[in-house]
Amino acid sequence: MSSTSDVIVLGAGIVGSAIAFRLAERGVNVRVLEAAEAPATGSTGRSAAGVRVQFSSEWNVRLSLAGIEEYRSFPEQFGRPSGYWPQGYLFLVPEAAWETHAQGLTLQRSLGAPVEELSPEEAQRWVPFDPVGIHRTTYGPIDGVVDPHALAMGYLAMARERGATLHLSCPLIEAAYQQAVWEVKTPAGTFEAPLVVNATGAWAGEVAGRAGLSLPVTPSRRMVFVTDPRPGDHAYPLTIDLSSGVYLRSEGERILLGRSNPNEVPGFVEGIDWAWLEPTLELALPRFAFLEDAGLDRRASWWGYYEVTPDHDAILGRHPDTEGWLDAAGFSGHGVQHAAMVGRLMAEEVIDGAAHTMDIGPLRHARFLDGDASKSAERNIV
Fold this sequence. Notes:
Number of strands: 20
Number of helices: 9
Distance between the termini: 44 Å
Shape: globular
Order of helices and strands: EEHEEHEHEHEEHEEEEEHEEEEHEEEHH
Low-confidence stretches: none
C-alpha cells in the first residue's frame, strides 16, 4: 500500500488534530498517522487539563490567551464541547520568588491577560491554606480546565469532515526524503507527502530520530494523585505552592494533587510511582490542612508524560537539517492549552511559508543552535 497526500501529520493528540483541522480547513489534503489504537490516548488523554495565562514569556501568554478564547467559544463556533470551565489558577508565591513572579504579572497584564494580585489573606476566599512563608499570590480568573479528549476528537472530526484521512495503529517505522517527497514507512504500508508535521508529543524526539533527525524532546513521567469523593467541598482553583512545587485542584467532588519529581529519570517509564506519594504529601499537608482527612483513590489516580525540552518551551516550525519536515512538539506540559493557536500557526507555516498570526521566532529550532535557549526559558513550570 502506498498513499500520497499533501501533508502527513504524525500524531492524533490534541496538537496533531488541531493542525490537521486547520490544514484541511484551508483545502489541504491531509493524512493523520497515529501510532496508538485510538486518538488522544497519549499525553492528551492523561493531561491534568489545565489552561492558564500565567506564564513568564510573551509567546506562552499569547498562545494561552488564544487557546482559552477558542476553547471558550468552541461550542458556539463549532457546535462541539470543549469542557472549558474558568476554575482559575492561584499561585502562592514566597518572598524570594516574588520579584521574578511580579515581572511575569506585569507582562501578562500588558498583553491583556486579566490576572489579579492578592494578599495571602485575600486569597483564602479561593482555597484555605497556611499563609506562613507566602508573600503574595496571583489569581487568573479566565484560567481553568478543559476536556482535552473532547477537544482532540472535535478537531479530528472536523478535519475528517473536510477530507482528512486518519490511520490508527500506524506508527512511523522509518522515513526518508527523496526527490522532494517524504516516504514514511509504517506497518500499514508506505505513505508519501512532500511535507510531514511531527506532532507526536513525548515521542517526538524518537520519531524524528527514525527519520534521521535530531530533536531535543524527551519524555518525563508525571503522577496525578486523586482523593476519594468529598461531598460539599469548595470548588478549588488549580493552586500552586511555589515554595514546594505542590499543586492541587478540585475535580467534581474529588481533589487532584501532584508535584514534579526533580529526580525523575527521563524516558518512557510506565506506571505510577507510589513511592512519590509520601514525599508529595509531606509538603502538601502543612500547607493544605484539609487534605488530612482526604482518602486516596488509587484506582482513580494516573500518570502521563510531559514532553520536555531544555528550556521548557515548544519547538515549532521547519527542521533546519532537511526539507519538508516540521515539528510541533516539546510543550513541556502546555500542549493542551497551546494547541488551538499552534494549529493555526502550523497551517500558516505549511501553506503560507511561515507563521504570521504570531511570531514563532523564539520557538524555532534555531534557538538551540544559537545557544540562546537558556536566556528565554519559561520560569512558570508546574
